[in-house]
Amino acid sequence: MTVQILQWTAAVYLAAGLVAGLGLGLETRRIERASVALLAFGAVLHAISFGLLHMTENPPPVTSLLEAWSFMAWIGTVFFLILLRRARLQRLVVLVAPAAFLGAFLGALVPSSGPVVEADKGSWPHAHVLLSSAGLALLGFAALVGVIFLFEHRRLKAKRPPDRRFPFPSLEALDRVNAVSLTVGFLLLTLGVITGMIWLQSTKGRPWTGTAHEVWSLVAWLIYAALEYARFAAKQSSRQAAISAIAGFAFLLFAVVGLELIL
Amino acid sequence: MKIILLGMNHQSAPVEVRELLAVEDPGPLLRKLVDSEDIEEAAIFSTCNRVEVLVLTRAPESARHRLGVFFNRDLVRQDHRVEFDFEEVTYEYHDSEAVSHVLRVASSLDSMVVGEPQILGQTKEAYRAAVESGSCGPILGRLFQHAFATAKRVKTETRIAERPVSVARVAVDLAKQIFERFDEKRALLIGAGEMGETALRTLRKHGLESIRIANRTPERAAALAAQFGATAHGLDELETLLAEADVVITSIGGDDPILTLDLAKRAMRDRRKRPLFVIDIGVPRNADPAIDAIDNLYRYDLDDLGAVANENAEHRAHEAERGMAIVVEEQQRFDGWFAALRAVPTIRHLRERAEAIRLRELEKTLGRIALAEDQQAAVDALTKAIVNKILHAPVSRLKREAEREEGMAYLQTARVLFELDDELDRE
Predict the structure, then answer these.
(1) How does pLDDT run across B37-76, given as a tens digit for each residue?
(2) Alpha carbon distance B207, B204 (integer Å)
(3) Is B48 annotated as catalytic?
(4) What is the pLDDT of residue B39?
(5) H or E stretch including B215?
(6) Which of B177, B274, B311 to mutate to test the interface with A (most CBs of A within 10 A)?
(7) Edge-to-edge strands of the sheet including B186-190?
(8) Is B174 touching A (CB cutoff 8 A)?
(9) β-pairing, B91-94 with B186-190?
(10) I need a surface site. Which of A15, A62, B51, B301 has the fewest CB within 10 A?
(11) Neighbour count for residue B201 (Cβ, 10 Å)
């Protein structure tokens, strides 16, 4: 049932992306709005799938990497939908929807949640996985916005006219969205690290065991802490902030996901 | 019936001739036109780039003459000393050409800046004046409605007005790509010249209200500042002003750049690296191109803005071609309607003739036999029905054929077959 709903979710996200592309091609506001509505509908379906998974077996909704992708896609989508109320970002649906589709699609590939290890039961691992994934999703979103910022910045510096079929939000809006995602994402990541330590404390009796995952995650957290400082206390320029967001996320992705694939 | 348009615009006449024509109140002029026997309906367009008189007439030759006199005596100011050849600075269009011209004007395809939005409002104003003075009848009225519909189609089906083509509008467009909103932003105008003033005015129209003006002579800055509700400053305060501004327009004389790399660097440090948009419209340039190296500073000089404007103008020209296709289509549609009006007299004569015959024969028959009142009514209805049924096919055909030029032959044939002209002669 959960997998079916997730499949439906992926289909709706895909439709949202296609409709958004159509809206850009035809430059019709109505189609643009329809794509936002579809994306929101997809996010609701996505939430239902997590709810069902949680109710049936009571594991955290994220027990595998693929499910984590799906969860991150959902968090990213919800965050984007919230931001839509504050900034004119409708046209980004064409980028966000395919990313959400990929997440839900990968999540649906898992036939059902895998066997739950005894140590993974309880609310601390639950909280750790959810908070860290959500943090990862938002920091990823900040990086995506950073890429668009750099693209637009370079275009304006080179004095090239904008592509009218694909007008991005203003640099100011992109910068602000980048700052908000970075702040909220870092906060969630921090909570993820703290809950992870508490989980270790409760199972192993100490908050630090020195595994690769712990070391790399902590380094990633420190890097982000430095980035936050540079951005908000030392007043980085928007371009530097965009580059930092991209570089930081690349490292985080490696530390949390890449390492899991290698080891 | 013929539609004639006589006018002059920015393409046909230089400004010193155009400014001789000023129509302040078209009402009396329009009444004067339709009071003459030759002219049935009339309208006058008058904007800063054109003056045109549009009339509907049954006597084209005398109407043309009348229009020429009207243009020279009633529209052109009489106290001028400018020499010009009337034929050369004006144009005259008839029927389809006149219709096409009116549609082009309303759709902003004939404007100096193609796609500018004011012209439609001005066309509506011309229509309103003509209706109020009673000079606009059913045919020109229909032409105006058709022109408004065409303008709407051109606006929605092409992207003619999408990209700005004036330097000031291009600058605003760029500012919107950098800043999300203008209401909390500050503008700084360096120099109190006319160019800078125009750019500032455009920015202000788009919501940028907090303005500072710096100039070599603070008195001139003060005079301009009073107009904009801005504050005036001397150039010695430049560094502080730059640190606080978001949009800077420079338009000041002098051979050396006033906005140097060094100054810009210091100002950027003070402003904690918030983005700064520099619009340099000074000639020679007021901002050193080296400041491009500063992050978060976006500098556009007159050439850069001009390049964007030109590209946009090319885009508009391309879209104007698509607009012209719509105009041709709509002009043909109007022509069809207008031509079909030619069938009206023939059809009316035909109906009148048939009705006369019916009444005559009915009278004869009813005089010979005695019928009850309801029986008489039945016979009357029967004959009416027969006449209508017989006339239905030829009348529909005539209406249809009249929309085409070749359809005139059908009208002619109908007149001969039904002896309509003979009937008129007898009358």
Answers:
(1) 889 999 999 887 899 999 999 999 999 999 998 988 888 8
(2) 5
(3) yes
(4) 93
(5) strand B210-215
(6) B177
(7) B231-234, B210-215, B186-190, B247-250, B276-280, B297-301
(8) yes
(9) unpaired
(10) A15
(11) 12
Backbone angles phi, psi at B57, to 5 degrees: -140, 155
- Please give the structure tokens belonging to residue B329: 């289509």
Closest CA to A52 of A103, A104, A6: A6
**Would you say B297 and B325 are in contact if contact means Cβ atoms under 8 Å apart?**
no
Q: Which two tokens stand for residue A230?
A: 């540079």
Residue pair A180/A106 in contact by the 8 Å Cβ criterion? no
Single out the residue of A70, A97, A79, A56 nearest to residue A7, CA to CA.
A70
Q: Does the beta-carbon distance from B177 to A87 stay under 8 Å?
A: no
ipTM topping 0.85 = no
CB-based contact, B255 to chain A, within 8 Å? no
Mean pLDDT score, B104-132:
91
DSSP labels, A74-100 = HHHHHHHHHHHTTS--GGGHHHHHHHH
| Cα A84 from Cα A112, distance rounded (Å) | 33
DSSP string, A120-137: G-SHHHHHHHHHHHHHHH
Tell me the chain B residues in contact with residue A173 when contact means C-beta distances shorter than 8 Å: 180
Query: Which among B180, B272, B307 is the nearest to A235, CB-wise?
Result: B272
Q: Is B425 on the interface with A (CB under 8 A)?
A: no
Look up residue B211 and give its two tokens.
């303005």
Q: What is the pLDDT of residue B196?
A: 82
Q: Is B6 helix (H, G, I), strand (E, B) or coil?
A: strand
At B427 the pLDDT is: 44
Catalytic residue among B48, B371, B382, B409: B48
Of B162, B178, B307, the CB nearest to A156: B178
Q: Which of A172, A236, A237 sits opposite B178 (nearest CB)?
A: A172
Chain B CB within 8 Å of residue A89 CB: no
Find out whether B165 and B141 touch, Cβ atoms under 8 Å: no
> Structure tokens of A68?
């984590």
